[in-house]
Amino acid sequence: MTDPHFANIKACVFDAYGTLFDVHSAVGSMKSRVGDQAISLSTLWRTKQLEYTWLRSLMGRYDDFWQVTGEALDYALAAHSIEDNSLRRALMEAYLGLDCYPEVPAVLGALNRAGIPCLILSNGSPSMLEDAVRNAGLSDLIQETLSVDALGCYKPDPRVYQLALNTLGVEPTAISFQSSNGWDGVGAAAFGFNVAWINRFGQQREHLPAAGKPIALTDLTQLLPLLGLSGLD
Q1: Which of 2, 139, 179, 195 could form a disulfide with 15 if both were Cys (CB 3.0 to 4.6 A apart)?
Q2: Are strands 215-217 and 11-14 parallel, antiparallel or unpaired?
Q3: Can 4-22+100-226 and 25-95 be said to share one CATH topology?
Q4: What CATH number belongs to 4-22+100-226?
Q5: 115-163: pLDDT as tens digits
Q6: Are 164 and 185 in contact (CB under 8 A)?
Q7: Does the 25-95 domain belong in CATH 1.10.10.10?
Q8: Nearest to 219 by CA among 2, 19, 16, 53
Q9: Rounded CA separation 68/45 (Å)
Q10: Active-site residue, selected from the candidate residues 3, 15, 64, 233
């Protein structure tokens, strides 16, 4: 079931948050403290987190993802009339140890065994990503972790995707890029990557221009046959 566009892949590059790591697991771990507002709080936190990266890019005012994450949480807490500094600290700490999705270790392991390097390319700051990878037990499966912090700009700026090329020394068509964020997938496809959109929750496609349309998968296990590898047992 190999797709011809994915026939000569030399490396797999993964977005981190929402693709490898469950961004809602931070609030989920505090559900007993947050109560009935947990889902709403987590959803708004994530929405504002992404919005603030785009808005900062438009304003030309870069701050790292840790600060952006904190500002987004402050907005979400205020919107839910929650004033609890100890809860805020606990949620930020929990964000450094997000759960990875269940299939992630096995998929990364299969790619490693096939000799396909696995990299992260993320908006996350280097320290955030280091903690997330270590706490999820993925350190031996990820060969390189690339952060936008090296550039001072956020996705989907093409300079971010260029980071992967600079690191790997290959053409865009030799990279399979995986993201759960439709807008990120479109940005990567417009740059020239082969893109697998990990659409875990049945979202609508983005109506944005791209040179190639990302292939929609429901989870990362479907990436393996796309690359011509056997699926997981």
Answers
A1: 179
A2: unpaired
A3: no
A4: 3.40.50.1000
A5: 999 999 999 999 999 999 999 999 999 999 999 999 999 999 999 999 9
A6: no
A7: no
A8: 19
A9: 10
A10: 15
